[in-house]
From TrEMBL:
This is AAA+ ATPase domain-containing protein. InterPro entries: Apaf_helical, Disease_R_plants, LRR_dom_sf, LRR_R13L4/SHOC2-like, NB-ARC, P-loop_NTPase, RX-like_CC, Rx_N. Residues 433-504 form the Disease resistance protein winged helix domain. It comes from Nyssa sinensis. Residues 545-872 form the Disease resistance R13L4/SHOC-2-like LRR domain.
């Protein structure tokens, strides 16, 4: 495992030496010799990577190779930095440079050549000591032995998907009874067990069950870290309660004092029956601090906590309490869970007979721990040959049966990690840069991996597609857990289980690969994540080696980056998303190596005029920043792949102008590697040149005028790779004319049209790959439904002020629709849904349809609906479902959650109309 990052680094160095000969030709002799040595080293490292663990001597040798490789990369990058500075600028600038700085260039070249000669000598000395990279055959120690005990702070429920849960039904029923039954006194339910035993998974299953949700007015899930600030916990609880209830979170939350937060929380909870989960409690002091914020009004409120410590679970909380101790899975349950993960594609998930004895032996070594079983099952799901299973079994040494159970988990997790291909290893380790319990967006992670050079080029498919395959494999191996999916099940966001994150952090520290700075001890690493507002950044040691800087000091004052430390000039990644930075330093344009620049949701107002000097930049994300205009130099960045510029009108999503684009230089069309251009303002010159951008996969454009129709449609017609299209007209009275488009691009999956439509585009019926359709202020006079009902993959349909008629009739089709959002229909007074239409619908939203006096006819057929949201609708509609005896109540009695949002002098308020929930609450009070 330890050699993976070094192996990849050597591969990158060799690639640079081969592909950048024009830049480093002045050092060709020295680099050629180093290249041959590195090739030999790489061969040894690949052999060593296949081993269970390296001997101490081999580990020292790999560390030596790593330091050499890092040094070579630093020398090459520094030399290229000077070479690129020499070549940048106009003819006059280059002439001045040649006249006055040529001696300095010669000096730099001489200095670099001297460093490379020393490296060559070091390589030869290392090679001789290691007998030309041979393996000495000693058994050595497992890499597991030197690791500390892995700590679990996270939401383990996300480690095992709901449909894979085994052996917890009895425990779940017991906890549900404790939460819903008993007297009206506030009660604490404790779930105690060791790390990886499934306590958080069980708690999450109970917390997320509809029967529990219906029984409480509000709910919150709070994960407790070992070091916490009570003010941050209060803020987290307030946000959880407000978001879960779909209420507007107080804007000034971040600036509130302890007393203000406490008063707000108590006032909010006092009239409500609440349930809150405190996940992973490490210290009983937490209860003493948080107890005051949780009022006891004798209305049946509940607190459930999970902990590893028996003394916390058994603590006398001064209120009613229950304790549930997690037991290991039985052999039958463990085997069932393992087979679910190891043989997902087999009939009935059965284990092949020829490997059953080996498989059962492996499961036995997990000792009933769900975390270990899931991880091992994910690993073995990729093994097809009996020899592979035997090799995996033999690599689990006797310590798995004799060490404490958490050591068993560590050993199995190490085995899972050891089995990763070296490119996946680097991608996995890189994820530990994100904070604990951080929701990692799929697209963001993919762009970062590409920028770091972790993703290999595969002929015939894009880097993004290769990176997504990496992500899917990590998910399948249970190395990452899916947190959010789109309506058709595709992952949108994931997270690292904390045990996995601890494992990755400990490995990264040894490898000097990744480091986390949270105000404590500093470490030398290539990739740095800052998770504090500490101002000691400029004094960070090892700046010259730094290739990535990700900052996560969200909601804290982070110092304005007026200057960059000199060591930053080799950065490949600079990620400042949501950081309160207002101005970028002038030195930013000197970061010739920069591949990824994320300024999303920052306060930055402008980009440097000479940003075109960042010729290696692949991703520029300025979404929801204060940057409104792009400098002309953007067109010089020939390696740019993703340009994201959308700015949302937050809080006004139903208004016509809910999103804004940015004007862009017309010569941006020269960027032949650009795949994502979202979102740009339309201009005549730009649209004429747009025809050449056939490589785009995502395109968004605003302020489109009728005169642009032909040019725009011709351009879109040629974008055969396009899968996401957003088009918005110049103002709410302008017509969006796209009749010149004979057919839509064949791969399009997401279509967003904002503006008046005279008629339904004739090519709508050809959108065979479409999964998401959003029509905004289309104000069609003809019925849209017959034109889209047969689309085979449509999973999400959002219509906002899209139709002026008085009836919508869904007679057939919509077989994969999961979400239906209808809002701002001024004349709509009837919705009809025939039996068998949209059978899998899970969420229905009806908003601002004031003429609609009753629920959709046929809603009783939609048995899978989990949420019904009614926002700013007529009182007649609400009264028909309010209360047990109301007229239409039987039609929606199967819907677990019914929410009503209404206008009041205090803003938009919320009430629950969930009948089952109210009935349960009343019975509890009785």
């Amino acid at each position: 495992m330890a050699s993976a990052a070094v192996d990849l680094l050597i591969g990158k160095i060799i690639s640079v030496i081969e592909n950048e000969a024009s830049f480093i030709g002045g050092l060709s002799e020295e680099l050629s010799e180093i290249k041959h040595e590195l090739v030999s080293m790489r061969s040894f490292l690949k052999d060593a990577y296949e081993k269970r663990g390296l001997t101490e001597g081999e580990q020292a040798w790999v560390a030596n190779v790593r330091d050499i490789a890092y040094t070579v990369e630093d020398i090459i990058d520094e030399f290229m930095y000077h070479m690129i500075r020499k070549q940048q600028g106009g003819k006059f600038t280059r002439l001045l440079h040649q006249t006055f700085h040529f001696p300095k260039y010669l000096w730099v070249k001489h200095q670099m050549a001297g460093k490379l000669r020393k490296i060559n000598q070091a390589i030869k000395s290392t090679s001789e000591r290691r007998q030309r990279y041979g393996v000495d055959g000693l058994e050595g120690k497992s890499s597991c032995d030197d690791h500390k005990w892995v700590r679990n702070h996270g939401e383990s429920s996300l480690f095992i998907r709901d449909d894979d849960l085994v052996g917890i039904e009895d425990d779940r029923q017991l906890l549900v009874e404790w939460l819903m039954g008993g007297d009206a006194q506030r009660t604490v339910v404790s779930v105690v067990g060791m790390g990886g035993s499934g306590k958080t998974t069980l708690a999450a299953k109970v917390y997320n069950s509809q029967i529990v949700k219906r029984n409480f007015d509000c709910s919150a899930w709070i994960t407790i870290s070992q070091t916490y600030a009570i003010e941050d916990l209060f803020k987290g609880m307030i946000k959880e309660f407000y978001v879960a209830a779909k209420e507007v979170v107080p804007m000034d939350l971040s600036s509130m004092s302890y007393r203000q937060l406490l008063e707000l929380l108590v006032k909010y909870l006092r009239p409500k029956r609440y349930v809150i989960v405190l996940d992973d409690v490490w210290n009983i002091n937490l209860w003493r601090e948080i107890n005051v914020s949780l009022p006891d009004e004798n209305n049946g409120s509940r607190i459930m906590l999970t902990t590893r410590k028996e003394d916390i679970a058994s603590f006398s909380f001064g209120v009613g309490s229950y304790v549930h101790r997690i037991q290991p899975l039985g052999k039958s349950e463990a085997w069932t869970l393992f087979c679910m993960k190891a043989f997902p594609s087999n009939p009935n998930k059965n284990c092949p007979q020829n490997i059953e004895s080996l498989a059962r032996a492996l499961v036995d070594k997990c000792e009933g721990l769900p975390l270990a079983i899931v991880a091992l099952g994910g690993l073995m799901s990729t093994k097809k040959l009996e020899a592979d299973w035997r090799k995996a079994y033999n690599s689990l040494n006797w310590e798995l049966s004799n060490n404490p159970m958490l050591e068993v988990v560590k050993s199995i997790l190490f085995l899972s990690v050891n089995d990763l291909p070296y490119r996946l290893m680097c991608c996995f380790l890189y994820c530990c840069l994100f904070p604990e319990d951080y929701l990692i967006r799929r697209k963001r992670l993919i762009k970062l991996w590409i920028a770091e050079g972790f993703v290999e080029h595969v002929r015939g498919i894009t880097l993004e597609e290769v990176a997504e395959s990496y992500l899917m494999e990590l998910i399948c191996r249970s190395m990452l857990q899916v947190v959010m999916r789109n309506p058709l099940g595709r992952p949108k966001a994931c997270k690292m289980h904390d045990l996995m994150r601890e494992l990755a952090l400990s490995t990264s520290k040894v490898e000097k690969f990744c480091a986390i700075y949270d105000g404590g001890e500093e470490s030398v690493a290539r990739h740095l994540s800052i998770q504090t507002s500490d101002r000691a950044l400029k004094s960070w040691k090892g700046m010259s080696q730094l290739r990535s800087l990700l900052v996560f000091a969200v909601d804290k004052i982070f110092p304005t980056l007026e200057t960059l430390p000199s060591g930053f000039r080799m950065l490949r990644v600079l990620d400042l998303e949501k950081i309160l930075v207002m101005k970028l330093p002038n030195e930013l344009v000197d970061l010739f190596n920069l591949r990824y620049l994320n300024l999303k949701s920052t306060k930055v107002k402008e980009l440097p005029k000479s940003i075109g000097r960042l010729h290696n930049l692949q991703t520029l994300d300025i979404r929801d920043s204060d940057i409104k205009v792009l400098p002309a130099g953007i067109a010089k960045m020939q390696n740019l792949r993703h340009l994201l510029m959308t700015r949302y009108n937050h809080g006004h999503y139903t208004d016509f102008e809910y999103v804004y684009g940015s004007p862009s230089p017309s010569n941006i069309c020269k960027l032949k590697n650009l795949q994502v251009l979202d979102c740009v303002e339309a201009e005549a010159d730009f649209l004429r040149r747009l025809r050449s951008m056939t490589q785009l996969t995502r395109f968004g454009i605003t302020k489109v005028r009728e005169a642009y129709e032909k040019d725009l449609c011709i351009s879109i017609q040629n974008m055969n790779l396009l899968h996401h299209l957003f088009v918005m007209v110049s103002d709410e009275e302008a017509y969006l004319r796209m009749d010149a488009l004979s057919s839509a691009p064949p791969c399009i999956k997401t279509l967003v049209l904002a503006g008046k439509l005279e008629k339904v585009p004739h090519w709508f019926s050809s959108l065979q790959s479409l999964t998401y359709l959003y029509l905004h202020w289309s104000r069609l006079t003809e019925d849209l439904v017959p034109n889209i009902q047969a689309l085979p993959n449509l999973g999400d349909l959002t219509l906002i002020n899209a139709y002026t008629g008085n009836q919508l009739c869904f007679r057939t089709g919509f077989q994969k629709l999961r979400r239906l959002h209808l809002s701002n229909f001024p004349e709509l007074n009837e919705i009809i849904i025939e039996r068998g239409v949209m059978p899998g619908l899970q969420k229905l939203y009806l908003g601002r349809c004031m003429e609609l006096k009753m629920l959709p006819c046929g809603i009783e057929y939609l048995k899978d609906v989990e949420e019904l949201d009614l926002a700013i609708v007529s009182n007649e509609l609400i009264e028909r479902i309010r209360g047990e005896g109301s007229m239409d109540r039987p039609k929606v009695q199967h819907v677990p959650k019914i929410s009503h949002y209404f206008q009041s002098p205090y803003g938009i308020l919320y009430e629950s109309l969930s009948w089952r929930k109210k009935l349960a609450t009343q019975s509890m009070k009785k």
